[in-house]
Structure formats: structure tokens, C-alpha cells
């Protein structure tokens, strides 16, 4: 996500390295590079120019604070301005109304049907709602099938009427069904086209007028860059929608749409899609996104995801096992499952400050744990419970059974042993011991 932009902005800030004071000359040079980076990311020229002018205005005349280097101050100014450009604060979804009606709009291929499912899953699991998905795409039979498949996947009801060719009637019947069956949120998936046309706009405008949704969302593929912004404007002129959904932000996106869409349509980005799985949906936080673009990571989101998957009861059991030196590979597997539930590894690594730069060019596979799981599953229950039993012949059998090498089995055992010791140390008030160890590694410095 935004790798190229992050890299180019980082290079731009290097211009200020070593300067004790921000001057008009080094500011101009840095901001010229910042503007170039934004244009390369497919940000509209006018927006990029206005953006750098605002940063320049704030930067000039400012003395560098004693605790800051000029480059760091410039990064802060750019971060604040980027946050403002992308909307300032996170915007929630309007769930008033009985039921709450959400109308999804967008071009074909933008990920609208999939995102309708993700949103339904989010509202069901995070907001304890009982959503209903309504299939109003009368032109693409596969869209109705797709919505039913998505609904089955997440355990959410889907309303459709294959014989009906009137999207307004289908939407109204769907809302009536929701009222009769206790659904408190209705998500209406409408037809998309390959391009904006008059018939499409008229049709969705009619649906909008008839059902009067609490929330009208425009779904846009962030990979399309500046075209996405233009399409958003065309839809907004007709629908006056409430918010934008950016999909496919996990791809090799240049990020132009995320940065400039808010200033063009003056509507907030409410959610982003960050992967293919049904839980790959995040509330859009402009400040967190600005930090990620500037390579600062997103620790807050990482902690939130960890807390969502954290099982207190399981944690207590593991603590007891660590205390008794009984932490085994079955417990280790449970830990791996919790990490996997947090989302794609690449996305998680991007939330760690500085990790983006360190992992540049590396392809982090979501199946990174696959060989670890294969090795553990090749162990007998007794071996998983008591790893000290693993002698040379057992290791050889496990390697053969998992399709890995004995060297890889040894490596896993070594890592497991180190992790067990660290967990034991952390639990036994060994924070002090760890600090001493770190001090030893650091040449005795605290």
C-alpha cells in the first residue's frame, strides 16, 4: 500500500538532512520533490500544488525546535496536511432508521458486491446488527449468484427476485422483507456499468428517491487512480452520496484516489477494503493513513486488531502453562491462528513503524506459517506436548511427514525454545533481567 509514494516522499525529506534551519531554498527543493511524488501517485495537479503551497506557508519562518531536525519538522507538517486533505477525522456510518437503509453505488468491477458482503459482516460482528443483503442488479445474473454466495459465507440473509426487472420494486420488496423478519440494516447492491451513462444514473437516482436511504455509499477501485476521482464526481452530482468506500487498497495502488477524492467531492472516505477475505475491511482514519504513507506505521490499528482477536481465557491458560514449563506446540499453533485472524501479514507488517522500508521488495506470503503448521501437524500429540522428546530419529520422521528438511525442523525448535524462554522471563517479573540482557547486547548501555 503506497510503497512507491512512501519511498519518494522519504527521498524528498532527505534534502533537509543536516540543515540546522529551514530556509526558503531547502523548503522549495523538498516541496518540489513532494509535489513530484504526489503527481507520480496520480494526485490531481491542482490538488498537489495547493497541498505543497500550504505546507510551504507553514514551514517558512518556523525555527526548528531544539528536539527536532528540519526533516522531522517537515515530515510532521506534511503529515498534518495529508491528514487534513484526506478528511481530518474518521467518519462513522449512519445507522439511524428502522431498518437502516444503505445504498451501494459504483461502476462494475469496483468490488461493490464483495464490499456489500464485507460491510454486512462488519455490521454483524462488530456492531451486533442483523443485516439483510438485497440484490438489485437486474442486468448481471452472476451478481445475484455472487451476493448469495457471499451471504452464505458470512451467515447473512440475501433477498432477491430473479423474475423482476424493476430495481425500485426489488429494493422496496427487500425493505418490506427486512421489516417482517427483524432485520435492522438493509444493504442494497445496485447494478454497475463499465462507464458512467445516462440510463445507469437515472436508474440509481430512481432507487435512491424511492427508498430514501440513511446512507448512500460510492464504491471505487483505488487502482484506477485519477479516473476514480472523476467517476466519484459524476455519481455525486446525481446522488449526493454520503461517503466513499475505497477497495483494493492492498494492491500495488499509487494512492491518488485516497489522497485527492475527499477534496474533489467533499465527501469523506468511510471504509477501505484491504484484502479478499470477508473481514478485510477497515474504518478509514485519515491520520493513521497519513502516518502509513510517511512510513511511520500504524501502531494504533495494529493494537486494535490484536485486541479484537485476544482471548482472555486462553491467555490465562497459556500463562499457567508457561509458569509450569508446559507451553507446547499445540499452544503455539493457537497463537499462530490468532495472528492469522488479524489480517494479511503484509498489511500487518506495514503497520509496524519502519518495517515498510526494511521489507522493501520482499514478497510476504499470507501462507508464511504454512510450513510451520505442516511441521507441527506431523508431530504426535505427545511430541507437541513435550518438545524435549524430539531426538534425531523423531526429527527425521517429522521432516519427511511435513515435506520439509531436518534443518527446518531444528530451526523451528530453536525459535520455539527462544520464544518459550522469553515468555517465561516476561511472566516471572523478568523484565529487569531482559533489560540487563539488552544492556549486555548494547555494550552495557541502558
Q: How many H/I helices?
A: 21
- Poorly predicted regions are 429-446
What CATH architecture label of the largest domain applies? 3-Layer(aba) Sandwich
Q: Which structural class do the helices and strands define?
A: alpha/beta
CATH topology of the largest domain: Rossmann fold
- Determine and state the CATH class of the largest domain: Alpha Beta
DSSP helix fraction: 55-70%
Going by CATH, what is the homologous superfamily of the largest domain? P-loop containing nucleotide triphosphate hydrolases
Residues in β-strands, percent: 5-15%
Biggest sheet: strands, sense, closure? 8 strands, mixed
Q: How large is the radius of gyration?
A: 26 Å
Mean pLDDT: 77
* Widest beta sheet: strand line-up: 3-2-4-1-5-6-7-8
N/C terminus separation = 36 Å
Gross morphology? flat
Defining key terms:
446 residues; 21 helices; Four Helix Bundle (Hemerythrin (Met), subunit A); disordered C terminus; 434 Repressor (Amino-terminal Domain); 3 domains; alpha/beta; Rossmann fold; eight-stranded mixed sheet
Amino acid at each position: 500500500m503506497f510503497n512507491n509514494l512512501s519511498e519518494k516522499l522519504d527521498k524528498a525529506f532527505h534534502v533537509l538532512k543536516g540543515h540546522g534551519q529551514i530556509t526558503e531554498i531547502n523548503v522549495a527543493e523538498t516541496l518540489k520533490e513532494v509535489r513530484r511524488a504526489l503527481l507520480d501517485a496520480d494526485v490531481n495537479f491542482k490538488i498537489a500544488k495547493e497541498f505543497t503551497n500550504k505546507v510551504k506557508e507553514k514551514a517558512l519562518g518556523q525555527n526548528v525546535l531544539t528536539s527536532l531536525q528540519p526533516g522531522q519538522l517537515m515530515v510532521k507538517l506534511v503529515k498534518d496536511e495529508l491528514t487534513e486533505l484526506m478528511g481530518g477525522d474518521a467518519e462513522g456510518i449512519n445507522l439511524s432508521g428502522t431498518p437502516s437503509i444503505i445504498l451501494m453505488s459504483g461502476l462494475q468491477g469496483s468490488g461493490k458486491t464483495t464490499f456489500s458482503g464485507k460491510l454486512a459482516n462488519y455490521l454483524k460482528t462488530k456492531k451486533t446488527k442483523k443485516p439483510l443483503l438485497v440484490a438489485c442488479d437486474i442486468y448481471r445474473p452472476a451478481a445475484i449468484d455472487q451476493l448469495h454466495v457471499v451471504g452464505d459465507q458470512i451467515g447473512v440473509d440475501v433477498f432477491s427476485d430473479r423474475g423482476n426487472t424493476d430495481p425500485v420494486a426489488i429494493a422496496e420488496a427487500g425493505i418490506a422483507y427486512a421489516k417482517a423478519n427483524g432485520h435492522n440494516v438493509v444493504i442494497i447492491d445496485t447494478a454497475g456499468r463499465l462507464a458512467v451513462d445516462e440510463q445507469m444514473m437515472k436508474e440509481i437516482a430512481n432507487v435512491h428517491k424511492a427508498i430514501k436511504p440513511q446512507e448512500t455509499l460510492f464504491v471505487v477501485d483505488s487502482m484506477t487512480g485519477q479516473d476514480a476521482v472523476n467517476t466519484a464526481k459524476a455519481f455525486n452530482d446525481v446522488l449526493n452520496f454520503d461517503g466513499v468506500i475505497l477497495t483494493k487498497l492492498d494492491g500495488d495502488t499509487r494512492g491518488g484516489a485516497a489522497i485527492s477524492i475527499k477534496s474533489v467531492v467533499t465527501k469523506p472516505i468511510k471504509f477501505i477494503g484491504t484484502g479478499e477475505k470477508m473481514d478485510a475491511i477497515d474504518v478509514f482514519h485519515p491520520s493513521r493513513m497519513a502516518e502509513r504513507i510517511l512510513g511511520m506505521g500504524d501502531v494504533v490499528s495494529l493494537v486494535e486488531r490484536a485486541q479484537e482477536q485476544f482471548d482472555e481465557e486462553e491467555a490465562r491458560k497459556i500463562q499457567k502453562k508457561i509458569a509450569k514449563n508446559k507451553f507446547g506446540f499445540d499452544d503455539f499453533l493457537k497463537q499462530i491462528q490468532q495472528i492469522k485472524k488479524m489480517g494479511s501479514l503484509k498489511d500487518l507488517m506495514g503497520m509496524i513503524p519502519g518495517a515498510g522500508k526494511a521489507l522493501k521488495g520482499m514478497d510476504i506470503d499470507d501462507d508464511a506459517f504454512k510450513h510451520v503448521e505442516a511441521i507441527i501437524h506431523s508431530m504426535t500429540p505427545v511430541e507437541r506436548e513435550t518438545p524435549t522428546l524430539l531426538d534425531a530419529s523423531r526429527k527425521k520422521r517429522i521432516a519427511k511427514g511435513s515435506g520439509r528438511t531436518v534443518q527446518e525442523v531444528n530451526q523451528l525448535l530453536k525459535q520455539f525454545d527462544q520464544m518459550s524462554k522469553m515468555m517465561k522471563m516476561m511472566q516471572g517479573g523478568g523484565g529487569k533481567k531482559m533489560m540487563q540482557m539488552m544492556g549486555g547486547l548494547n555494550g552495557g548501555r541502558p
